[in-house]
Amino acid sequence: MPNAFYRLLLRTAYHTGVTARFLRARRREPSLTVLYYHGVRAPTGDPFDPSQERLVTPEAFQRQLQFVKLHFTVLPLHEAVSLLREDSSCGPLLAVTFDDGDATVLSEGLPLLEAERVPFTAFLPTALTGGKEEPWWARLEEAVRACNQSVTLEVSGRSSTYDLRHPAGKWQLYHDAYNAAMAAPDGRCEHALQPVLAQMAGAAAGPRNGAVRTLVPWEGAKALARSPLGDLGSHTVHHWVLSRLDAKTLRQEVLDSKQEIEERAGVRVFSFSYPYGERASERVRLREYLAEARYHCAITGEQGFNRHTQDPYELRRVSVLGTDTWPLFVAKLTGLDALLRRAG
């Protein structure tokens, strides 16, 4: 259905009490909702800011935390999974999670989480934590932002001209290059992106405005772990597309990341988050390695809620975006959002 009509339906459902009735219905049965964030940051005002859709504002984040405390029992992910499986009368459970270890989880998110007394799980890609490697998506964003002229580049085997003096041109190049990176045959997105970055290297650059996402250093990861509310999970070593890796590399991504987090942060790691979600048919290859490493649970990219019968290595989640309105956020928690989308 058209976005404008969809937003109107959400506002109408919220203000007429329909959303509230859906929420009350959810309170009567045991379930687990896994909220999926990337970070917390105020808007930059930059018309080219790919990160902003994934980062919620501090004000929105605090309001969301206050809301979930009222309507759910909020626990670290692995504790919530265990309780859901063991207690059929547990009611609605919720876990707050962050993928990638964005630096704003520490600087902006942690103070709010501690102020509201809400536990959380942060998933770290260990090769990108501490600045050993810069995330490929951050390198792409930085390169596109810094270039302010018209350029002709070959992306995905096709030559195109991008006018990077204007936001529209920057967005077009960013999306084209992002898709090219995601299509990397070997699963290593940075390898597919490198030719594009090399072509841009000689282009005129402008000043960096600090809007590019950075990840927490290891001292920051330790600070998250030291919080009485904090829990760390694995997001692999390199954040590669796992389905395209050979068996040896796949095993290393799953086992080595857990080991490094436990050794560096001094905590036990129970949870795993699949980079890019991965399709169900492709996740089958990982199960033996998840079991070998003794992960308790793993979250996928599939949207939805989890019942007590849910496979702990196939947990669904609910994405929270910086563009979500309040009626949309509440509708996501009730299942009304998914219902309307299926009906549309």
Name some characteristics of this structure.
two-stranded parallel sheet, eight-stranded parallel sheet, 45% helix, single chain, 344 residues, alpha/beta, globular, TIM Barrel
Structure report:
With 344 residues, this protein is an alpha/beta fold. The protein has 2 domains: 3-132 and 213-343, Glycoside hydrolase/deacetylase (TIM Barrel), CATH 3.20.20.370; 136-200. The protein has helices at 3-15, 18-26, 58-71, 77-86, 103-116, 136-146, 167-182, 189-200, 218-226, 247-265, 280-283, 287-292, 326-334, 336-343; strands at residues 31-37, 39-40, 55-56, 73-74, 92-98, 120-124, 150-155, 158-163, 230-234, 271-273, 297-303, 315-319. The strands form 3 sheets. Strands 1, 4, 5, 6, 9, 10, 11 and 12 form an 8-stranded parallel beta sheet that branches. The protein has a two-stranded parallel ribbon with strand order 2-3.
Q: What is the C-level CATH assignment of the largest domain?
A: Alpha Beta
Low-confidence sequence ranges? none
What is the C-alpha radius of gyration, as a whole number of Å?
A: 20 Å
Residue share in β-strands? 15-25%
Order of helices and strands: HHEEEHEHEHEHEEHHHEHEHHEEHH
- The CATH homologous superfamily of the largest domain is termed Glycoside hydrolase/deacetylase
What is the residue-averaged pLDDT?
Answer: 91
Number of strands: 12
In total, how many domains does the architecture comprise? 2
Helix share of residues? 40-55%
CATH architecture identity of the largest domain: Alpha-Beta Barrel
Main beta-sheet strand count, sense and barrel state: 8 strands, parallel
Structural class: alpha/beta
Query: Roughly how many Å apart are the termini?
Result: 5 Å
Shape: globular
The number of helical elements comes to 14
